[in-house]
Specification:
Radius of gyration: 18 Å
Largest sheet: 9 strands, mixed
Structural class: mainly beta
Strand content: over 45%
Shape: globular
Number of domains: 1
Length: 184
């Protein structure tokens, strides 16, 4: 009987370790393709609604605890963030319903469902480099902008010479800082 109990504990431990492995974040967020010639393994994602700016952000990160980082706006050194800005430019609001958002360069005058995106890379010394998306789409399949909501969807984008696809299922974060982003 004691041997059977130990076997069950061993199997549970192996299952717990296996659940922690893999190339996707806890909610199944993933990126397929390379960005700047490098793989991007998603560790976490976060979404936040910026009503005063008429948009929502979705971030896929290679570090954990994205909501806490976003709340403090201090990103870790040697990190990467794939960031989407989504807006219903025609209604001048953040997303309110599922739909396909066309990627445009940031600042282009647009109407309708609008997306801008890019990758931010902080090196070991907190030097920042960015790669902007040059085209593609982001399709929201779930929009819940309540305080404990989520944004979920897929993307098919071009960043420089790289074609990247993937999906996200991101909880919305509370207490998001509007301060300038920094690195530590």
């Amino acid at each position: 009987m004691a041997t059977a109990g130990l076997l069950v504990l061993l199997l549970l431990a192996v299952a717990a370790i296996a659940a922690g492995c893999g190339g996707t974040a806890p909610h199944g967020d993933n990126i397929v393709g390379t960005i700047g010639g490098q793989d991007f393994v998603v560790a976490d994602s976060a979404a936040y609604v910026r009503t005063s700016r008429h948009l929502a952000n979705v971030e896929l990160t290679d570090f954990a605890d994205s909501c806490a980082v976003t709340a403090g706006n201090v990103y870790p050194h040697s990190s990467r963030v794939l960031r989407f800005l989504l807006s219903d430019a025609g209604a001048n609001t953040p997303p309110t319903q599922p739909g396909t958002y066309t990627v445009h360069p940031l600042g282009d005058p647009v109407t309708g469902l609008y997306a801008a995106c890019g990758v931010e890379v902080y090196d070991a010394s907190c030097g920042l480099s960015t790669l902007a998306c040059t085209g593609g789409t982001v399709t929201l399949t779930l929009v819940d902008t309540s305080g404990t909501g989520q944004l979920a969807g897929t993307f098919d984008i071009t960043i420089g010479a790289d074609h990247v696809t993937g999906n996200f299922d991101s909880a919305t974060c509370a207490n998001v800082s509007e301060a300038a982003e920094t690195c530590s």
